């Protein structure tokens, strides 16, 4: 991961203030947000830098605090195509917290960006030490994945030939 930690200080409160804005953390109380924030870090990376590449092992989830990142996917011709640009409040790599499968896309900074990162190790520690909080976060991730699947299915339907409904 080619990122550098942001300087400490009021970092925890800044993370909490950001998490409050994320629907993934809607079920957490302020105290629970504070406990979850203990396992998260701020990272900054510069325009043009790659956070991770498609096929890399994944063991952390990212939340975009500021800036913009491009999600790139290899096409059938071997070219990288930008499939999305994510900005403040977006989540990256949520599948990597759940499974041990390689990254499904490349993430590159479109401009200087700041992220909050929760590692799988940090998430597992939350699950072990604070299972109620871990379950709430897991439910938030499940809602996010479900929403993404519904959105993808809807987009896919736009490219599929309709079935004759005259039967």
Topology:
Layout: E1 4-5, H1 11-19, H2 30-37, E2 40-45, E3 50-52, E4 60-74, E5 80-86, E6 91-92, H3 94-98, E7 106-119, H4 120-129, H5 131-157
Antiparallel strand pairs: 1-2, 2-7, 3-7, 4-5, 4-6, 4-7
Helix pairs in contact: 1-2, 4-5
What's the short story on this structure?
The chain is 35% helix and 29% strand. It has 167 residues and is of the alpha+beta class. A hairpin with a 5-residue loop joins strand 4 (60-74) and strand 5.
- Uncertain runs are 2-7
Number of helices: 5
- Work out the strand percent: 25-35%
Intertermini distance: 54 Å
Question: What order do the helices and strands follow?
Answer: EHHEEEEEHEHH
- Helix amount: 25-40%
Overall spatial form: globular
Please, what is the average pLDDT?
A: 89
Radius of gyration from the alpha-carbon trace, in angstroms? 17 Å
Written description of the protein model:
- With 167 residues, the protein is α+β, with helices and mostly antiparallel strands.
- It is 35% helix and 29% strand.
- The protein is built from five helices and seven strands, in the order E-H-H-E-E-E-E-E-H-E-H-H.
- Strands 1, 2, 3, 4, 5, 6 and 7 form a seven-stranded antiparallel beta sheet that branches.
- The model is unreliable at 2-7 (pLDDT under 50).
């Amino acid at each position: 991961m080619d990122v550098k930690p942001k300087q400490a200080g009021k970092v925890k409160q800044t993370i909490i203030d950001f998490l409050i804005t994320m629907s993934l953390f809607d079920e957490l109380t302020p105290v629970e947000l504070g406990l979850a924030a203990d396992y998260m870090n701020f990272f900054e990376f510069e325009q043009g830098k790659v956070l991770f590449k498609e096929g890399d092992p994944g063991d952390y989830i990212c939340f975009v605090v500021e800036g913009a990142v491009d999600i790139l996917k290899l096409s059938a011709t071997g070219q990288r195509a930008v499939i999305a640009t994510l900005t403040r409040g977006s989540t990256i790599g949520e599948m990597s917290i759940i499974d041990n499968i390689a990254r499904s896309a490349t993430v590159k900074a479109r401009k200087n960006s700041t992220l909050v990162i929760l590692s799988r190790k940090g998430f597992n520690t939350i699950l072990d030490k604070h299972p109620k909080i871990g379950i709430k976060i897991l439910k938030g991730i499940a809602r996010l994945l479900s929403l993404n699947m519904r959105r993808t299915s809807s987009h896919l339907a736009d490219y599929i030939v309709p079935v004759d409904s005259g039967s």
